[in-house]
Amino acid sequence: MRLPTLKPLGISAPFRTVPLFRTLGPGSVSSLLKIALDVAYVLLMLITGILLLAFVAAIFVPLTGPLEGQTYVEGTGDAAREVPITRTLILFGLGATSAYFGGFLLILRNLRQIFRTLTQGDPFRPENVRRLRQIGLTLTVVTVGVAVAQGLIPSIPDPGFSEMLTPIFSVLVVFVLAEVFKEGARLRHEAELTI
């Protein structure tokens, strides 16, 4: 069965439509974005791998050399104090950063798979609903993790409501998009049954 093709976006002139670009299929904007996501995925995979290696090395390598006896300033103004850099602090920082980048690596993996279906011209697949839900869940975990980490480190100010508004809004938008894709997949399935 052949699915109907979508018309490219364009500027409507009085007597004809001038196509600007195609949004779906091979050679479209979706395929260009898929390439950008592939590059970002590889770079993020390298960064996450390096962070994980540094985390494992920090477990076994003794804290000597330039970091031994070093401190950092925690707080501001009269409440500022010097805190020694310890193995626990380094492990926490590397672990939290690795988890942060790992979460976004999972998000990019799902986005790449969604854009693969866009490039094929078939976005309303049931697996895209699952992928969008996974993106929303991962984004929720990353957002909550950042808020918890900010609460654990006194030198980082707690996020206010306005700072949490964008991540919360993003999570809600992703879950709504998942439901839109679910409805699109349902309608597509019904259309296939009637043909």
Concise synopsis of the structure shown:
It contains 4 helices and 4 strands; from the N terminus they run ββαββααα. The protein is mainly α.
Overall description:
It is a single chain. With 195 residues, the chain is mainly alpha-helical. It has four helices and four strands; from the N terminus they run ββαββααα. β1 and β2 form a beta hairpin. The protein starts with 8 loop residues before the first strand and ends with a helix. The relative contact order is 0.10. Keywords: Membrane, Transmembrane, Transmembrane helix. Pfam families: DUF2975. This is DUF2975 domain-containing protein. InterPro entries: DUF2975.
**What amount of the residues lies in strands?**
5-15%
Alpha-beta content class:
mainly alpha
Provide the spatial order of strands within the biggest beta sheet: 1-2
The count of helical stretches stands at 4
Multimeric state: single chain
What best-fitting shape do the alpha-carbon axes yield? elongated
| Poorly predicted runs of 5 or more residues | none
Tell me the major beta sheet. Answer: 2 strands, antiparallel
User: Got a strand count?
Assistant: 4
Query: Percentage of helical residues?
Result: 55-70%
Radius of gyration: 23 Å
H/E series? EEHEEHHH
Number of discrete domains: 1
Mean pLDDT: 81
Distance between the termini: 9 Å
Transmembrane segments: 39-65, 85-108, 135-153, 165-181
Protein name: DUF2975 domain-containing protein
InterPro entries: DUF2975 (IPR021354)
Organism: Brevundimonas variabilis
